[in-house]
Design brief:
By secondary structure, the chain is an alpha+beta fold. The protein has one domain. The chain has four helices and five strands, in the order E-H-E-H-E-E-H-E-H. The chain has helices at residues 13-20, 46-62, 98-101, 122-131; strands at residues 5-10, 32-33, 68-74, 91-96, 115-118. Strands 2-1-3-4-5 form a five-stranded antiparallel beta sheet.
Amino acid sequence: MTHDLRAFAALSLEELTALVGGEEVAPVRPWRVVAVPADPTAEPSEEEAEEAMEAAADDALAAGLPVVVLAADLPAGVLRGDAAPVTLRQAASFHLGDDVALGEPEAVGAPWELSWYATTEAAVVQDLLRAAPEPHPEG
């Protein structure tokens, strides 16, 4: 029996728009895959999932993007960093940095406090991302 893996990737506005529009999207930034427990019925630890989500948030920041992280369930064969395509149906949730959720780019960065949005709120996430201020360059 094949189990899905929870993975996280930073999304651009273009990628999110395509996803919301029903397209299959392979995020440009790498998937951060949560380690698979030895017991296939066990869930990954909360700490491992948080580390993967934060790594994806770091990827967005490093790319100069507003922080929008997609959590998705990918087939078990996907390896760390693979450009695996995903549909909105595979999406589990969205996680937004304060730059997007609150319109506060100066509040972005580690330690991460990301706001959770359900996939049913994808259009809301898209509107928030469109309205997000330009990220401040690092340094």
